[in-house]
Amino acid sequence: MNRIVREHYPVEKLPEDLRETVTSRTTVRVVLEDDIPAAASAGHFTKWQSARRSHFESSEEIVAHVRALRDEWDRR
Length: 76
What we know:
Radius of gyration: 23 Å
Largest sheet: 2 strands, antiparallel
Strand order of the largest sheet: 1-2
Number of strands: 2
Low-confidence stretches: none
Helix content: 40-55%
Strand content: 15-25%
Number of helices: 3
Mean pLDDT: 81
């Protein structure tokens, strides 16, 4: 997901419909994000969950796996 943030953006540069909603301010914080449908992002999460379940049965197994990887790198 891409995100663009502009701090202290001049209200006068906003499109008119947005400018009307913030008449009491001279600057605003503008955040732009990709418009990704919720169903699409949920699909990625579901795929990740099923992949995780196929490798590990519990959070303890995940922790043990991470520790083993860390130990392996420490030995190098």
